[in-house]
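Researcher: Structure for this, please.
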Amino acid sequence: MSVLLALCTAPNDEVAKRLACALVEEGLAACVNRIPGVRSTYRWQGELHDADEVLLLIKTHRECLQTLKVRLVELHPYEVPELLVFEIADGLAAYLAWVEVQTRRQ
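Model: Predicted structure, token format:
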């Protein structure tokens, strides 16, 4: 299957909205859900951090992935943004077809 789900975190809702809108407007994502209230604990540059973040659920297509990676790095304020990508094994056929249509490269 060619539909993918990508996870990315953003530091706040303003940045999350900007990223989501850009990815959808550019046809790199069919839909991006923004989930506020995520609390992340991580080590960065030798220091322990604990921060509020917004989780983005990005629905995309395999053909868009490389461009999406480039754009995410360009648009994201983090030096190393989180991006984890999962293949969709199955789902509602009509929804998966919609994702493919929305992310079809022109």
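Researcher: Any notable elements?
Model: The mean pLDDT is 95. The first strand starts at residue 3 and ends at 10.
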